[in-house]
Amino acid sequence: MSIAQDARLQPGKSAERPATAAPTRDFGHPAVWAVAVLLVIMPLIANGFFLIEIFGTSLILGIVALSLMFLAGYGGMVSLMQLTIAGLAGYMTAVLGASGNANISLGWPWWLATPMAIALATLFGTIGGTLAVRTEGIYTIMITLAIASAFYYFTNQNWAIFNGHTGINSVVTPHFLGIDWRADIAFYYVILAVAALCFGAVSYLARAPFGLALQGVRDNPRRMATLGFNVNAHRIAAYAFASCIAALGGVLQVWNYRQISPGSVGVERAIDILIIAVVGGTSRPIGAFVGALIFVLLRTFTLDFLVAIGLDGNRFRLLIGLGFLAIVLFSPDGIVGLWERLRGWSGQGKAQAGGERHG
């Protein structure tokens, strides 16, 4: 019997969770293709601000949130260290590459510094995952939160490698083939290509034998262990894969702002990734990007609105928190889950109307 067949033999809950058992619908729905076409032609209809600060930033945050979505949605593991992994990749890109801090950065070419940064961040996330899988539930969350908090304080106090609270500025971005790949349009397409690659990888892996086995481990680890699967090995492999995705997002983040500091990897930012994933929905890979877009729109325009009416701009987090509570209470599967239920009700209504006409 194959891994895929074994992973489908889950009692009870797996049959009740089609949202994670059938991720292929992300590709088949016409709305996904319409959004994909819109994203491809976005440079034709959006200026530099919307292209990078809204859509580019949303895609980058969506990539990091996608790594959390994969762990939580398919593996049942909530990790608060995904932004930390992205932050380590960003720091390593700045340290190994070239920047305005010549006394810290080693000056490697981008094509060497970037893969090394991703590899180191992936290794870091895998080691953290190895520790986290020994626990369950709230203890997993606390371990990953402790790792995120420790990394923030380490970067804030370490001057020899991370330049302390000042961070590393003027990070050099790629130039090759005669193109400045940090120019707005070129960089947007780089972000879009990486986001599409990560989205496709998660969607494919979720229906591959490993992904099906991981979902079986999520639903009934004891049953999967009885069937001969190494539960912890599957979970650690999931952390390694998710860490690689988060690392890609971290590299794009440091290229986007050309700098990185401890504020970029703080616990508050790590919780933002959790909010993004939950608001968008952890049942579908597309949910990470939907949640990221909503978050960026609220962070950008609500801040200006509150300042315009004379209120403290930081109160935009209150609105985000209220929205988060509303989503958790009324749609545990996030915006994507709410949309699918609305489509289901609409389809049932049309079917009933058609039946009445035929009757």
TrEMBL record:
Source taxon at top rank: Bacteria
GO molecular function: ATP binding; branched-chain amino acid transmembrane transporter activity
Residue stretches spanning the membrane: 31-52, 59-88, 108-131, 138-155, 186-215, 236-255, 286-311, 318-339
Keyword Mitochondrion in annotation: no
Membrane topology: Multi-pass membrane protein
Subcellular location: Cell membrane
Chief place where the protein resides: membrane
Keyword Transferase assigned: no
Disordered, as annotated region: 1-23
Keywords assigned by UniProt, alphabetized: ATP-binding, Cell membrane, Membrane, Nucleotide-binding, Transmembrane, Transmembrane helix
Cellular component aspect of the GO annotation: plasma membrane
Name of this protein: ABC transporter ATP-binding protein
Organism whose genome encodes this protein: Chelatococcus reniformis
